[in-house]
Specification:
The structure is a homodimer. Chain A is of the alpha+beta class. Chain A has helices at about 5-15, 20-30, 40-50, 55-65, 115-125, 140-145, and strands spanning about 70-75, 80-85, 90-95, 100-105, 110-115, 125-135. In chain A, helix 2 crosses helix 3 and helix 3 (about 40-50) crosses helix 4 (about 55-65). The longest helix of chain A is centred in the middle third of the chain and has 13 residues, at about 55-65. In chain A, about 25% of the residues are buried. At the A-B interface, strand 4, strand 5, helix 5 and strand 6 of A face strand 4, strand 5, helix 5 and strand 6 of B. The structure holds manganese (II) ion (2 copies) and zinc ion (2 copies). The first copy, chain A, binds a DNA duplex through helix 4.
Chain lengths: ~140, ~140
DNA sequence: TGGTTATTCGCAATCTGTGCAGATTGTGGC
DNA sequence: GCCACAATCTGCACAGATTGCGAATAACCA
């Protein structure tokens, strides 16, 4: 995601307005590596700006996502998580607490599809992106077991 | 997933009963590589057994999943998809229609985490499983664009 | 400054999935 | 084959996440 300042420019360029609510959300997301859900952002935003609506949070997250500034992540834990890091990276997810961590991975280019049916699938599909997800248990969750 | 016959035995062995509803669901899942959602299964099941409840579909899917006969897949398209293929395999997903195809991939063992923060994350997390998801557009969806 | 147009916000509605309880049915033992 | 009993089925209420809608409001450009 670009900086709050750059986003301000980008929004205006698109005919979108830069409201205090949006600026706050930009700031909350900038450099955030926690992969927050809309709900978590709403809680944080509400502390800084009481009265801000959850609807506005969703609205802005959707806008940023469709602008390509944000990536939506479905980790299979109820709510969608949002990722301002749009670098080519991957994730480690704790199946117990839902913690999501960034990881940079080598060897992704070397992945190869096997067998005929796969080759066919490969030909039939136009692949845009490869996501690697490592699932497991984080240290804190391992302690309390 | 085991065959419907084997599942019958497995269920009885666990003190679970084998009802016509469950048998139907076993049959609908056996060899099914479409990764159906509960909803889709409900529609198909309803055709064969009018009156069957969506609740029963969910119930049986949950049972099969916790028995390890089925894998639940979150593809970020609303509903959970269920996979009777419990081999070590991966998926190609069409971002437009939600089509999910099985692919067998080589090179997964060679994936390596880079950088310090990642190495730390790797040490902190106990990784159980690595999922690779190829995202893109299937041929039919490409035509209609 | 004013007018136009996007945005905000609250609320209803949708969608997916789960909790509950009464009526029903599969099963193992006789 | 019949019984007793536990497991199941179903309908319905409910919860959580997200979206649709519209009236009131606020941003932006001339
Ligand atoms: Mn990330
Ligand atoms: Mn599969
Ligand atoms: Zn954890
Ligand atoms: Zn498609």
């Amino acid at each position: 995601m670009q900086s709050p300042e750059e986003l301000t420019t980008a929004f205006r360029a698109r005919g979108l307005k830069v409201t205090p609510q949006r600026q706050l959300i930009f700031r909350l997301l900038a450099g955030n590596d926690r992969h927050p859900s809309a709900d978590v952002l709403f809680a944080t935003a509400s502390a800084a700006m009481p009265g801000i609506s959850l609807r506005t949070i969703y609205q802005t997250l959707t806008d940023l996502t469709s602008m390509g500034e944000l990536r939506a992540l479905d980790v299979g834990a109820g709510a969608t998580r949002f990722d301002p890091n749009i670098d080519d990276h991957h994730h480690v997810i704790c199946d117990h607490c839902g913690d999501v961590r960034d990881v940079y991975v080598s060897g992704v280019e070397s992945l190869r599809l096997l067998s005929d049916a796969d080759a066919e699938a490969h030909g039939i599909f136009e692949i845009d992106r490869t996501q690697v997800v490592f699932r497991g248990t984080c240290s804190p969750c391992r302690s309390t077991r």
